[in-house]
Write a structure and sequence with these properties.
There is one protein chain. The chain is an alpha/beta fold. The chain has a single domain (7-136), classed as Response regulator (Rossmann fold), CATH 3.40.50. Helices cover 38% and strands 17% of the residues. The chain contains 5 helices and 5 strands, in the order E-H-E-H-E-H-E-H-E-H. Strand 1, helix 1 (15-27) and strand 2 (34-37) form a beta-alpha-beta unit.
Amino acid sequence: MIPQSLKILLVEDDDVDAEGVKRGFAKANIGAPIFRATNGFQAIEVLNDPAGPFADAPYIVLLDLKMPKMNGIEFLEAIRRDENLRNSIVFVLTTSNDSQDRVAAYANCVAGYITKSKAGVEFRDLIQMLESYTKIVELPICR
């Protein structure tokens, strides 16, 4: 079970994919709240809000790469330069199986690179992986 104190930021511009992730978490009875940003700029704004939901709680970012305004790689580069956000735990969740995207993501210290096609039906494999991850890994509170 993913702890309810953990918060999840889903950075995803596609409404269908975002609803699929939320539906998968709800179906698996995951109590962790999911917040959504539709691009990297919005995600950084939400994460840096001192009165926002991510100010004093551990969180994980699920990040799509192909987004408008600020794509996933640009987002990763920006948060790794940000003193408050550089230790954020980020999993890439994308349709891209491009090796250059994988290399760029890992160069920016992602915890994992997951293609949506391997995330499982209704994202079950992703949810199981996150459950296992949060059971054994001590997560930082960034800020």
